[in-house]
Amino acid sequence: MKKRPHFDILASMIDVADSIPLMSEDEMVELLSSPLPEELPVLTLRNNVLFPVVVIPVSIGRDQSIRLIEDALKGDKFIGVTAQRNPSVDRPGPDDIYHTGTMAKILRVIKTPDGNLTVIIQGIKPFRIKEFTATEPYLRARVEEVEEIRPPLDSEYQAIINNIRDLALEILRLNPALPSQSARVVESIDQPDFLVNFIISNLDLPVREKQRLFEIPDIKKRAYETLQLLQMELNKLKIKREIELKTQKALDKQSREYFLHQQIRTIQEELGDATAQEIEEMRRKAAEKKWSEEVARHFDKELKKLQRMNPQMAEYAIQRNYLETLLDLPWNEYSEDKFDLKEARRILDRDHFGLDDVKKRIIEYLAVLKLKKDMKAPILLLYGPPGVGKTSLGKSIAEAVGRKYVRMSLGGLRDEAEIRGHRKTYIGAMPGRIIRMMKKAGTSNPVFILDELDKIGSDYKGDPSSALLEVLDPEQNKEFYDNFLEVPYDLSRVMFIGTANYFYDIPWALRDRLEVIPISGYTIEEKTEIAKRHLIPKLLEEHGLKESQFKIRPSQIQKVIVHYTRESGVRGLEKMLAKLIRHRAKQVAMEEDFKPSLTLKEIKEILGKEKYPAGLYEKNVMPGVVTGLAWTRTGGDILFVEAVTSKGKGLTITGNLGKVMRESADIALEYIKANAEKFGVDAQVFDSKKIHIHVPEGATPKDGPSAGVTLFTAILSALTGRKVKPRVAMTGEITLRGKVLPVGGIKEKILAAKRAKYTDIILPEENKKDVEEIKPEYLEGLNFHFVKRTAEIPKLAFEEEEKAPKRRGRPPKARGEETVAAEESAPPKRKRGRPPKKKAEETGSTSGEAPKKRRGRPPKAKSEEAGTSATPKRKRGRPPKKKQEPRQPAAQGGETAPAPAETPKKRRGRPPKKKEPTAETETPATPSDSENATAEDTAKRRGRPPKERQAENESPAEESKD
Question: Which of 210, 527, 749, 873 is catalytic?
């Protein structure tokens, strides 16, 4: 039977009332006195309950019900009627029906055109099922009578009955959908019990509610419950009527939809009493919370405020959302920590290769927590280049300690309300992201990752970094205040872990709250192990491949690392490996023939042309080119610095250098000027030569306080013409006093030098402790040179330092003023008579041997020669390599190493390894004289006074050679 709202059933009862006379009191007594059969067939109703004396029509459509009615009509027409527990069950069994029903009599059966039956039945007396005797073809049961308590018709009972009749008539009056004859039916019922049962039967109530009233044996109590239901029904109809009257005046196309929604909402709230149920549910959840008394009092106060609000107000939804947030937050609910330190170490080693410092710190934290139980969690900061595993390390830590894991990215965060939340008075207000993440974690002690701390911004809406101070300060986060909550929340047991790429981009106010753990880049060997253990298995699973379908050797992985990636982490390596695996996935999907193991040829075909050479080392073929080491946000890198001199004056710097590096270049140049004589640089060169410094890749900004040593070496190399030793890289900062200052990022810089195939590294002395902290395998194949003063750098960096003694008596100062072009223009004939390299071996590098080699020359004459300006004639006949008279050993031995401090001008412009001991005693008048010179002539000239020899040696050809 279909459900009919309110008193719609009365309309269908009018015809029945006309054809079936309502019973008198005597007739009712006679009907109720009918004996109850021992066994009855049971007819089940889907959406109604039959009460005693009440007449209702029932639509019969199920086969077993039709069979039951047909069999009953053949007999005494008595049946049992019960209600179904679940109306959706089409063939109910003994467990699907209520076991308290009504004995009924079939009054009339009407067949409908669709083949169904409409049966009019009248209830007689209630019964209770003792047991079921049959289930086929329909239910049959043994029953027993249920005695009803009929009260005497006293004044109280009579008043209840009168109120029931009045309320029923008022409901019929307010509901224009019901016919006017319905009121006549209600007025004609004079038996109190019949009126109560009739009203309940026709009210729009759920079946379970009607069954509850039906099972009340006391008629007076049933009448009182009916009176309450009618009062509620009348109130709803009045509210509906008021809504109709208020909205009818301004009803149009735009307001029609609003009116309907308001009407539905009001009806739903009044019928279901949803507000009361929600409040009661909140109160029950609050009783189970472990919050403090302060929070409990605050919650009760806000809950009472919600009870006083009209559900239709906008503030009602805000208040309810606020209370639900308080209930959903974990208050003093902690997950149990795991204190198995060996298992924790195993998990950390399983998920991450290397990172020993980080693992050591985590194990130390767990050890202290195990001993003290209630230690405040420190705020850890993992900083390093991208792709080294900072964020993923948090998941491993959470698993190791047995805590929940949550992550919040701070990149680009500019609004302070994202941290502290909005005030709940605003529409759409919500708590900050810290509280929302705690709600997501479900515990008060999760592992909380604050990702990208160095990328926090700020604007007119506030500074999020300032709001984070209360979160990250162990002394303040015990009472973190969120604008939405309005009550303190304890964050002291949360294990916060921050991540960043660059430490100095973290707002300064946060730095001293953090315990810093740097994570450096990986070596090639470490990257290979990470690829084997983690990257390749993960990528194979993501691409749906088996391990047997893709194999790559460690040597091939190293080729990919060296030739296709240039990073400190493994993010780029993962992309390259994914490209190889995608190619294999395509082959498997297209059923192509392939071998599981890759070859180098296949790798090159898939990945394309090599992006980077085997090593970044570049041989310095000219002075002024120096390799420096730099720290970038992606790890360590090498930096080439180029310096040249040209005609002009001053210093030019190019290459997109920042302010700090430009200042380092100025300091390096000024220090060289102040110590020009010490470094063998002519002071006049600064007035005649322009120095240009360039750092390649000008599109990339470069800055930092660690390029002073590199810039100093480049400028000095350009001024003196000395080349830097091969495979030498350097880093460090200098001062005007010549002191070398320590720098940071030593491990990253060393890894960059090793990747670029450099073997010798010059570092500040104070960075020696940083090198000692690095694992020995990182330092394999590297030689370190530590310096305290800038003056120590040239002998370590320049290869000419060892070859300088071969230039007999020529000071470095003179060399800085000559050009290579002048040396190449010298006539080759003047090289005749020069002994080969053998002379350099016979000579010593000390100035103490010089007086013996220049026999017969008084020291005074040498001093005069040194003070005299160099003339072309003095340098004639000193060619670099064309030595044609090795038969003069006496001359070689006697003139090999003149004192450099006494004769600086005579040896200007002489290239190393090509200095001849006979050049100062030969007669330089003409080339022919030089060719015909004999050993005797040379011996005779040894005794010449200095003044004579000076005149002979002066010639224009010597000057052009230099």
Answer: 749
